[in-house]
Write a structure and sequence with these properties.
- By secondary structure, the protein is α+β, with helices and mostly antiparallel strands.
- The chain has a domain at 69-169.
- It is built from 5 helices and 5 strands.
- It has helices at 18-35, 38-54, 63-70, 145-169, 172-180, and strands at residues 72-77, 85-93, 107-112, 125-132, 138-141.
- It has a 5-stranded antiparallel β-sheet with strand order 1-2-3-4-5.
- Helix 1 (18-35) packs across helix 5 (172-180) and helix 2 runs antiparallel to helix 4 (145-169).
- The longest helix is centred in the C-terminal third of the chain and has 25 residues, at 145-169.
């Protein structure tokens, strides 16, 4: 058997023509979008949710922590499709969400309605409000519109924040930073497409 050596010319981003460079960057951005860890977006949105509820930003937060301390869970779907957005479910207590206007209420229960079986946004949430009387009994509050509006506004804000997070991690500048920090910067054909992985290499 005779060994055969195959050589191939593989380029870095800076060695490509302007048109090929644009194509290569778009391929990297598409790859970053496909491989973007959902937990990265979730943890950042959790931190922003808590900031909205309390007025204090504590950075990225795990979902279990937010559920245990604040009583709510966050769901999101952000692919620029109809029905996408952010929704919040669970039980909020006025003592843990001091930035909200509670009126006479002390507790809010946020549950999934029939829209929530198919979509993820502020209109997927039913809100029930309660207050406690002097003996500690829960009293149902029928006027919930003012609180529903707040929850929907939070969901819309988090939706915008979520898209901003995704846009950052798939932006041209971030893509270039990822390539620059990689030990396989030489990975493109001369037309800007990816060369086979076995030919990738350092600068």
């Amino acid at each position: 058997m005779k060994d055969i050596t195959i050589t191939r010319q593989v380029f870095t981003l800076d060695e490509l023509s302007p048109a090929a460079r644009d194509k290569a960057i778009q391929l990297v951005r598409d790859e970053l979008y496909t491989s973007l860890p959902s937990v990265l977006v979730t943890y950042q949105l959790n931190g922003l949710l808590v900031e909205t509820l309390t007025g204090q930003f504590d950075g990225e937060l795990e979902s279990e922590y937010v559920k245990n301390k604040f009583g709510v869970s966050l769901e999101w779907s952000l692919s620029y499709s109809q029905g996408d957005g952010v929704a919040i479910y669970g039980t909020l207590d006025s003592g843990n969400a001091t930035s909200l206007n509670w009126g006479d209420a002390n507790k809010a229960i946020l549950t999934r309605n029939h829209w929530g079986n198919h979509y993820t946004h502020g209109n997927c949430i039913d809100v029930a409000l309660y207050r406690y009387d002097d003996e500690g009994y829960e009293i149902d509050i029928t006027d919930t519109d003012y609180f529903v509006d707040q929850i929907k506004a939070i969901c819309r804000k988090l939706e915008r924040d979520g898209y901003d997070i995704i846009d950052y991690y798939t932006s041209e500048s971030y893509s270039i930073d990822v390539l620059s920090g990689s030990d396989t910067t030489r990975r493109f054909n001369d037309d800007g497409t990816f060369a086979p992985v076995e030919f990738w290499g350092a600068q």
